Amino acid sequence: MENYFKSWMAHPISKIFMATNFIFAVLFIVSVPSFVKEHITQDAVSIGGKKYDISDVKESSPIAYSKFQSEYKSLLKNTFGEFAQDKLFELVAKDKNLKPSEVLTQGLVVKEPSEEEIINVYMANKAQLGGKSLSETRDKIVGFLKNQQEQEFSRNRYKEIITKYPVDFLIKEPDIVRVTVAENNNPSIGPKDAKITIIEFSDFECPFCKRSQEVNRQLREKYKGQIRWVFRDFPLPFHQDAMYAHMAANCSIEEGKYWDVFNVLFENTGNLSKGNVDALVLNTGISKSKYQNCMKNQTKLKAEIEVDIQDGQKVGVSGTPAFFINGIFVSGALPFENFDEIIQKELKQ
């Protein structure tokens, strides 16, 4: 915050004006220290008598700082979003002489679902209904279909509202924190000179990692030729079958089958026993003898994977999946839009 001052010493000043400024000066002297103490020294941690603030976190642990920035922005957006929604409903309610609770439902007419719709829902979900008949589940299916109508009506109404009353989030973008992450000659997809390099630390036994693969494929498809995607092993210690699966995948690299094995292992995340992993790998067409010979040297394979784990830990990876988009840390199986926003900004630079 900048302060601007004017010189007033050269001008005649009345006694009243001088007294007023004197009082202001006294108040300023008294209040500034308390202001500083309250606002400048807050948000810190004292360790052994030495105080550290967020700038120290940024310097020593950029990933922790990046997480803080991202989560703070998300919290702000959610808070403003809830506030904006309430205000929008107030505006519309006043305009249409309604109660705010009626804004999204005014004019709603829920129709009785057709027999065809009921049967389609029943057949599509029959396996999850525990053997119950259509007559036993009819009321629940009808309720479900009516609820869908209500939700669709509310979504369309909300779109109309924000078209009339646009909502823009004027939230300052957080500082971009980049971390240097080595590729270390790991398997990759995409050109080496791509403008975007994404390094993924992941675990074949991790359900969140499996979930993220669909988003990853969508990104590679949309930005084909613009993204280089690097995969690094990060089997978590509490996933008992993960290490073996990662060793098996690495034994397929020389045969040019890595990404085939990669895909089939993630398709079977919940069933990666050693026997099943071996069968899955061999079903991709890899040479059985070469695979078995490679898997005999487990000490070497584990050492290579440990390098990935240690490199990840050095840059702040503690869970999976973890991504670095041109060094910008992204944690977790997030929606497509979260990655897309960062990539588009990087491509514009």
Automatic annotation (TrEMBL):
Domain Thioredoxin as annotated: residue spans: 167-348
Keywords linked to the UniProt accession: Disulfide bond, Membrane, Oxidoreductase, Redox-active center, Signal, Transmembrane, Transmembrane helix
GO terms assigned for molecular function: oxidoreductase activity
Segment forming the signal sequence: none
Pfam family, one: Thioredoxin_4
InterPro entries: Thioredoxin-like_fold, Thioredoxin-like_sf, Thioredoxin_domain
Coiled-coil parts of chain: none
Segments traversing the membrane: 16-36
SUPFAM superfamilies reported for this sequence: Thioredoxin-like
UniProt keyword Zinc, yes or no: no
Entry superkingdom: Bacteria
Family named by the database record: Belongs to the thioredoxin family. DsbA subfamily.
Protein name (Swiss-Prot/TrEMBL): Oxidoreductase
Origin species: Leptospira jelokensis
The organism's taxonomic lineage, starting at the top: Bacteria, Pseudomonadati, Spirochaetota, Spirochaetia, Leptospirales
